[in-house]
Amino acid sequence: GENVEQHPSTLSVQEGDSAVIKCTYSDSASNYFPWYKQELGKRPQLIIDIRSNVGEKKDQRIAVTLNKTAKHFSLHITETQPEDSAVYFCAASTGGGADGLTFGKGTHLIIQP
Amino acid sequence: GAVVSQHPSRVICKSGTSVKIECRSLDFQATTMFWYRQFPKQSLMLMATSNEGSKATYEQGVEKDKFLINHASLTLSTLTVTSAHPEDSSFYICSAGLEVALHFGNGTRLTVT
Prior knowledge:
The complex is a heterodimer of chains A (113) and B (113). Chain A is mostly beta strands and 113 residues long. Chain A contains no helices and eleven strands. Chain A has strands at residues 4-7, 10-14, 19-25, 32-38, 45-51, 56-59, 62-67, 72-77, 86-92, 102-103, 107-112. In chain A, the strands form two sheets. In chain A, strands 2, 4, 5, 9, 10 and 11 form a six-stranded mixed sheet that branches. In chain A, strands 1-3-8-7-6 form a five-stranded antiparallel sheet, with no helix packed on it. Chain A is globular and about 40 Å long. Chain B is mostly beta strands and 113 residues long. Chain B has no helices and eleven strands. In chain B, strands 2, 4, 5, 6, 9, 10 and 11 form a seven-stranded mixed sheet that branches. Chain B has a four-stranded antiparallel sheet with strand order 1-3-8-7, with no helix packed on it. Chain B is globular. Chain B starts with a strand and ends with a strand. The chains are: A mainly beta (113), B mainly beta (113). Chain A binds chain B through residues 32, 34, 41-46, 49, 87, 89, 96-99, 101-106, 108, and chain B through 32, 34, 41-46, 49, 93, 95-107.
């Protein structure tokens, strides 16, 4: 089955700096890669996703890049703000959507004032 | 946007009793819902896939007789933790897919004393 590795487990950056979280996946058939943000005690929420036919996608301060050859994808957050502090999970699926998602272990992003 | 409602948000029960958790899709129909378990500071671990009108599909290592899942309608799935023990204490989250996105409930914090 699919295996998703996520790094780092904890990331601390100064407010205003950029943050990058990286994930690798094992199943070359995976074609859908969402990122979720989970604030303490709350539900995970989808913040951005990318499909395998696209190399990069951007939404304001958030961007995701995908390298299918290397089987890795990354989340980039620019101009970080205190409200960006949360746990971020990457995920991958072969079904093209929500079915069969395998999650990474999560990255605790801490924004230092 | 799509809303998934999960109840209760917190429950404390005595060892040996059973607890039912409800997951509802409020503004869309979900033929498939997913149940996850999340330990503190860890990722979302898929327990089972709930299929409307048929049996749930359980992940390896998840006891189907202990975690009973019923998906009787297109908007409701329930997870019953039977004969709960302290080691079942955890955060349980349901989700439902709409198109490609996965929408999560608020989660249920189960504490077994």
